Structures are given as C-alpha cells and as structure tokens.
Amino acid sequence: MNFEEYLDSLRDKTVAVIGIGVSNQPLIQLLLSRGIRVTACDKKNREALGIVAEQLEANGCSLRLGEGYLDGLTEDVIFRTPGMRPDLPQFTAAVKRGSILTSEMEVFFEVCPCPKIAVTGSDGKTTTTTIIAELLKRAGKTVHLGGNIGHPLLAETGKMKPEDIAVLELSSFQLMTMTHSPHIAVVTNLAPNHLDVHKDFREYIDAKENIFTHQSAEDIAVFNADNPYTLEEAGRAVGRARLFSRQKELEDGVFLRGGAIIAKRDGAERQVMTAADIKLPGVHNIENYMAAIAAVDGLVPDGIIRDFAREFGGVEHRIELIRTRNGVRWYNDSIASSPSRTIAGLNSFKEKVILIAGGKDKGISYESLGPVINDHVKLLILCGATAGVIRQSTEQAPNYGGLEIADVTDYHEAVALADSRAEEGDVVILSPASTSFDRFANFMERGRVFKDIVNALK
To answer: How many of the other CB atoms lie within 10 Å of CB of 217?
Structure first.
C-alpha cells in the first residue's frame, strides 16, 4: 500500500491520535487536511495546550483532554505516542472492540517509497544516525532524516521518491510493535536501559530486535562485535550480518587495526581512514564511525568519509563543547541519560574532570558507574533524584579514595560551584547518567538550560 492509498483507506474511519506534542502535530494536521475525522487526546488540559487547542479545533479536530483522555477509546484507528506502552488497559480494551492500534513510525514503514536505513542501540544512536545521514548527503543522495531524531516523516512521505533514502533513529518504544524492518539495520550496542517503562531487560532487547527480525535475505544488519548482546543477535540475523569491532579483526565488517579503520568483505580489505581522522573525542565515537561505515559501505566513497570525519564536530548535547573560559572547557553531554552513556563521556577525556550528574531514575543499576567516576573525576557535583544512588555507587566502589562529592539544588548552584573550583586546563561536563524528566521536558531542554547558565558566566 502506498501513501495515498493508506490515506484513502482512512476516509470512512475515525482516528484517535494520542499525544498532542510537537511530534504528533504534523500527523494530526495531515489527517485533517484529507478530511479524516480525528480526535486528538492528551493528558494536558486546554489551558496547558493554549493556542494549539484552538488551532486544532478550528481545523475540525475533536479534543479529549485531561486525566481521562484514554478512557472510552472507540475510534477505528488509534495512533499511540512512542513512549506509551501498547498494552495499557485502555488500548487493550479498544483493540478487543475492533480498533487498530498503530503509530506514526509503523505506518511510515508500510508506505515509505524509498530504501530505509535505521539505527538503534542503548548508546550512540543519534551520533551514528547523523553520521550516516550526512555521509549519504555528501555522496549526493536525497536523505530524509527522522524517527527519534529530526522530525516526523509520515506527513512528508508524499514528497519522497524511490531513489531517496530515509535514515531513521529508532528507540525501543518505537520498535516494540514494529512489523517491518529497514533495508539496512544498525544496532550500536545494548545495555540495561528504560527499565522504568519496559518490564525487564529481556523485553527491552526483544523490542530492539524488531529492527532486523523482519528483514529479507537481501537486507543487511550491522552489529557491535564487542558487545555480548549484539554479538549474540548477529547469529539471529535474517539477512547479511556485518560486524564492527575495536577489539578484534573481522572477516566481514569494519575493525580497528592499530590506528587504522579497516573495512573487509568477500576476502578483500582496505583502509577507510584512521582513528586520528575523527574530530570527535572518545573511543565510543570510533565505534560510531565504524558502525556508520559498515552501513554505508558501497554507497559512500571512502574519501568523503575521511573528509567528513575531519570536520564533523558532533551533535548538540553530546559531549558538546559550550565554551572555554579562563582555560576551563565546559561540555554539555545532556544526552547521557544512563550510566553507560556517562561512562563513555568520562572515558573521552585524558584528564580528570569536574562532573555534574543526576536526574530521574530509570530503574537501572548504577553500580558500574561508581568505579569509573573514581578513576576519572576530581569533583563530583550531584543534583536531582538520582544523586543518592550515584553517591552510593561511588562511595561503595572498591577504588573509592575519598573523592569529594557535593550535593546542590539546581544547575545554577552546580555551575557556580564548578566555576569556583575549576582551574586552568580543567574540564567541566554535565553528563547526568539519568533522564531529564524530574525537572525538564526532555534532555534537549536540560542541555540548553545548562548551556545558557554556562554562557552567562562573566
């Protein structure tokens, strides 16, 4: 079914869209523009939605707002927002009554007219996805970037051509109910994550595996050979499995030999570039590039990859250099919403850093973080709901040697303390190891607030 046929199939149906956030508004407007009867449902009340509610109603949209916004769903088709479990009682009841439960991304995979490359994993998704998209653009491809990055793509599907490429970052929430897989799938790594939403780690892994389990034999899946979970997944690949590794040489994939990044397939190998060509700091970014190279091998010339790596300074909120002031470098790593992300961030610096951490708990263990903090941090500043568990993991680690730990109430106090203690040559980094939802709408807002405070230092 193509895009127009799908929209035509909805003309005589009722549709509910759950969540009136930025990501769903283009979908709502698209459906309304085609004369489809839409009810937009959101936990926020009319006052909180403000002018958005007025605009939607003016365009013919019905609203169901407030605490009971999920009660009594009877629409023929229900688009759930990705962060919402598909097995909520209200959804289950609606499906039993005959409703079809879907999502913007599920429909996009059904109707997208061009090849799709998608990336998932616990860490490195956004950077790897961005690298892939930018490399393809430099190679002359028309690229549509979306999923968990960029913006929703379903509303733009009508403009896409068969020769274009859609590049997507997919979260475990988006993948939970996917019944289609991309032509090229990338799994960067896997570690316990989002256990505040997923029932357990097994469910999290199962969701991630949907990125490749619906592939055909002609498709490609790229896996991290250094991660035990993704290496195991490679054995279950439906199509061709390609690996990447910093630690060992491979027969089919991309690996590090000394300082050279080597690509090998069908018995032939070549040096694509060196690790020194990568402008981004940290060994995890070497892995991100190797994953991207494995995905675009044959689509992008090596020279383009080398030139891009030498220029690309990274994605906002990912070990992003904010400023250098009085010889002190300030970094924003707000994307680090789990211990493994913060560990990767800390390992990116040769010197011991001043770390600002803490946020909302995702129900995962912080035990692995403590030893790394003791090895890489000279002053730990904690702020947020996970301050206690991060402190505990640090003080109970076998290598704890009395590291100074300070608790503060907010980022203004954290930045002021770090500024007063930092000396020329120091690094100060916000790398929370926790989600942002205790105080912020998302990690982007958290990072921008932090950057504003740092940039305001006189």
So the answer is: 8
Residues 110 and 241 in one domain: yes
**What token pair was written down for 292?**
């991207």
Which amino acid does the sequence have at 155? A
Question: Distance between CA atoms of 55 and 279, rounded to whole angstroms?
Answer: 45
Looking at the structure, do residues 157 and 37 belong to the same domain, yes or no? no
**Residue 366, domain CATH:** 3.90.190.20
Residues 294 and 221 in one domain: yes
Convert the pLDDT of each residue in 32-66 to its tens digit. Answer: 999 999 999 999 999 999 999 999 999 999 999 99
12: buried, middle or exposed (CB in 10 Å: 19+, 13-18, 0-12)?
Answer: exposed
Domain end: 311, 341, 370, which one? 311
DSSP strand pairing (240-245 vs 116-120): unpaired
Residues of the chain predicted below pLDDT 70: 150, 193-198
Phi, psi of 167 (to 5 degrees): -115, 125
> Residues 174, 162: contact at Cβ < 8 Å?
no
Q: Are 98 and 111 within one domain?
A: no
Provide the whole-model pTM. 0.79
The predicted-structure confidence for 185-234, as pLDDT tens digits, reads as follows 999 999 876 666 667 888 999 999 999 999 999 999 999 999 999 999 99
Provide the pLDDT for residue 198: 64
- The domain containing residue 46 runs over which residues? 3-102
Q: What is the model's pLDDT at position 197?
A: 67
For residue 377, the cross-strand partners are 353
Nearest alpha-carbon partner for 375 in 407, 350, 408, 339 = 350
Residues 261 and 180 in one domain: yes
